[in-house]
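Quick one:
INPUT:
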């Protein structure tokens, strides 16, 4: 088996994981992307990681002034002490004057002089890491593809003998299809950004080339926050197996457990669906608080309901949500689907699991769908997430609201019932001149369950599930009609 070459940690959260530990040392890499995607920020993090490891590092800037680089660093709370900055703007002014007095082509004079000057600076400092920002200026000075390729090739050959890892930044001003540097670089990282109709920009990166080593291919979402670039590696469920003991999880409501054939099974996913107001979120919260009561950690990702509202409502139902939150065993994370992309959300769930969470509530799938309105691979991402949670022995509850209150016109935003292991159906029905709620289980892969329909109520005493009601018809039409006696109902 071949030995993996020594690597340089980039210091970028998630990026080293994609690179399986870091980027191979002593090679030249291309970091490309449109303006504003975070190339400079990523490059600075790479240099700062080297500085913190005791290495000499050098930032060569043609496109920005040293003051601008310091401003970018300050915006992230970084000090560039120990990072050598070499600015070529002053040199270019002198080169323009020299070019006017020569018989050679001005581009040839300027490019050669700039290259010689920066290489002299590299030889003087002898750094382990170098960032060259950016190739756009070098391309403009070259004025021809042949001269440009020759200069880049010269840089590659020079650095190859100096035990130096080099990042070349390029903003793609040459247009699509320019592959001059890609063919010469040892590795290529492409950064992309797109603006949805509503919400924050969505950014993603892809390693399009990395010679001789294993890496995580495909697109990986990332964000730029105060503190730098945060990368969210694409989730591959098969890489996260963690053997666990299968056991039944109780809701703390005996009749609900009976309806589910004893309760939910650890490592399974449950979809709770129905129209608004039927108690879906309350059932999911009940499982979370019951988990905490028996000593397990739980997290609720709230897309639709405000955190304060959820706490007040569940406290009123006797779930003691505030106490569980104060203990640190339960966490509620407010998610804004306009600001958080799918990749970031999946990473949040994954990090919660790594922190020891055993029950995950996603409330609701509707909000998650809004987080990826243009994503054609919703089902694939959701399947991968649920598969990961199942392999780690996590009990997952998904809430999905159906459009409409009752009747055949009710519809779901997405058909995810086939992905979930268990499906709990909540419905309204009318009896005795009152609108009531009913609960039933229509699917449970991991075992038997009741096929009965039970009345469901909520009050200060908590959630209540009545005895099985046999006298129903029209349940699957969305308009269950109770034809039995009022004496069988929980409240009359």
């Amino acid at each position: 088996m071949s030995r993996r070459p020594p690597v340089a940690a980039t210091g970028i959260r998630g990026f080293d994981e994609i690179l399986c530990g870091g980027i191979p040392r002593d090679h030249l890499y291309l970091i490309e992307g449109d303006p504003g995607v975070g190339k400079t920020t990523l490059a600075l993090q790479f240099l700062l990681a080297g500085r913190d490891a005791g290495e000499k590092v050098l930032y060569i800037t043609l496109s920005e002034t040293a003051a601008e680089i310091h401003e970018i660093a300050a915006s992230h709370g970084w000090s560039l002490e120990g990072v050598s900055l070499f600015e070529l703007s002053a040199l270019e002014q002198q080169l323009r004057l020299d070019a006017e007095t020569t018989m050679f082509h001005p581009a040839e004079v300027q490019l050669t002089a700039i290259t010689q000057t920066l290489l002299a600076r590299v030889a003087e400092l002898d750094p382990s890491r170098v960032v060259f920002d950016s190739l756009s200026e070098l391309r403009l000075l070259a004025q021809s593809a042949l001269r440009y390729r020759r200069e880049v090739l010269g840089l590659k050959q020079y650095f190859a003998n100096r035990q130096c890892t080099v990042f070349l930044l390029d903003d793609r001003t040459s247009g699509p299809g320019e592959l001059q540097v890609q063919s010469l670089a040892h590795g290529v990282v492409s950064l992309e950004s797109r603006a949805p109709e509503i919400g924050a920009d969505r950014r993603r990166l892809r390693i399009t080339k990395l010679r001789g080593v294993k890496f995580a291919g495909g697109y990986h979402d990332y964000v730029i926050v105060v503190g730098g670039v945060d990368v969210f590696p694409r989730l591959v469920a098969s890489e996260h197996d963690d053997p666990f003991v299968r056991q039944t999880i109780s809701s703390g409501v005996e009749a609900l457990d009976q309806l589910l054939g004893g309760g939910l099974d650890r490592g399974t996913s449950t979809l709770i669906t129905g129209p608004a107001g039927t108690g879906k979120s309350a059932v999911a919260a009940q499982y979370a608080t019951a988990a905490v009561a028996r000593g397990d950690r739980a997290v609720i990702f709230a897309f639709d309901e405000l955190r304060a509202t959820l706490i007040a409502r569940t406290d009123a139902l006797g779930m003691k949500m505030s106490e569980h939150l104060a203990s640190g065993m339960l966490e509620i994370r407010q998610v804004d689907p306009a600001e958080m992309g799918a990749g970031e959300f999946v990473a949040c769930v994954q990090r919660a699991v790594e922190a020891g969470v055993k029950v995950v509530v996603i409330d609701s799938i509707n909000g998650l769908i809004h987080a990826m309105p243009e994503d054609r691979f919703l089902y694939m991402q959701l399947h991968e997430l649920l598969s990961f949670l199942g392999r780690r022995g996590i009990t997952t509850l998904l809430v999905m609201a159906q459009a409409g209150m009752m009747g055949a016109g009710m519809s779901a935003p997405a058909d995810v019932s086939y992905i979930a292991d268990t499906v709990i159906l909540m419905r309204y029905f009318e009896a005795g001149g009152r609108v009531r709620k009913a609960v039933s289980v229509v699917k449970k892969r991991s075992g038997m369950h009741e096929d009965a329909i039970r009345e469901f109520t909520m009050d200060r005493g908590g959630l209540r599930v009545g005895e099985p009601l046999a006298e129903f018809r029209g349940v699957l039409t969305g308009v269950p009609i109770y034809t039995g006696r009022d004496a069988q109902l929980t409240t009359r």
